[in-house]
Amino acid sequence: MSIIDSLRPAPGLRVLVTAGGSGIGAAVARAFRETGARVHVCDIDRGALDRLAVEAPEITSSMADASVPDDVDLVFDDVQGALGGLDVLVSNVGIAGPTGAIQDLSRGDWERTVAVNLNSQFYFAQRAVPLLRQSAQNPCLIAMSSVAGRLGYAFRTPYAATKWAIVGLMKSLAIELGPHGVRVNAILPGPVEGERMNSVIGARAATAGVSVEAMRAQYLQKISLRRMVTLDDVAAMALFLSSPAARNLTGQAISVDGNMEYL
């Protein structure tokens, strides 16, 4: 295999993308499908899954709340039926969580953020690892963290805490699974252009008492390249981490953020 050929994932990979109905997850799912992978996604949003089915009918799907273990079990029943095994898990589920000073946050908001962002990573890894260990196709688990998984993030403590925890889980699993040939890495996206980031900026602007435009300018000022990343930037990294070229990359927290200097 040439170096150029090694930069593409092998065709026919069996891939599961969580929260794959829209946003980063859908971009990752479509990118894998374009390489010839067989892709299954799950999402809590039926409308998003229906739209993806129209855009990419080859991608199979399950409706599920990733923070509910019984739903996760049903997803893996569907994965076995649709794919017959698994070579790549992209564990992408996540919510923004609340914005506010620590003393003003509700326990319910904290617990929901932990349940969705962190517990889901555990539930999916626990079910995926036995299948990945059976794969002979350079198997890997990709955990979606955030730039907030390497930097402190005032007024977003639940989100930052879960994203740091994902990195710790990933690094521990890389050690645990390395002897079995399963690689584990995390992608840490910076601010991603789109509706979700617009909502985050709006909430943070309201908390800080400044305009949305001023808050957006503040975000860009913190990025060395002075631009946000795109969904395709993140999807491209997921493809690379699943390719033969990355066969010796494991235990790495890889930022795709234009070098976010601080939050």
Layout of secondary structure:
Elements: H1 3-6, E1 14-18, H2 23-34, E2 38-43, H3 46-55, E3 60-63, H4 69-83, E4 88-91, H5 107-134, E5 140-144, H6 157-177, E6 183-189, H7 195-208, H8 212-221, H9 231-241, E7 253-256
Parallel strand pairs: 1-2, 1-4, 2-3, 4-5, 5-6, 6-7
Summarize the structure.
48% of the residues lie in helices and 13% in strands. The protein has helices at 3-6, 23-34, 46-55, 69-83, 107-134, 157-177, 195-208, 212-221, 231-241; strands spanning 14-18, 38-43, 60-63, 88-91, 140-144, 183-189, 253-256.
What can you see in these coordinates?
- With 263 residues, the protein is of the alpha/beta class.
- The protein has one domain (3-192, 230-256): Rossmann fold, CATH 3.40.50.
- The protein is built from nine helices and seven strands.
- A seven-stranded parallel beta sheet has the order 3-2-1-4-5-6-7, sandwiched between helices.
- The longest helix is centred in the middle third of the chain and has 28 residues, at 107-134.
- It is globular.
- The mean pLDDT is 96.
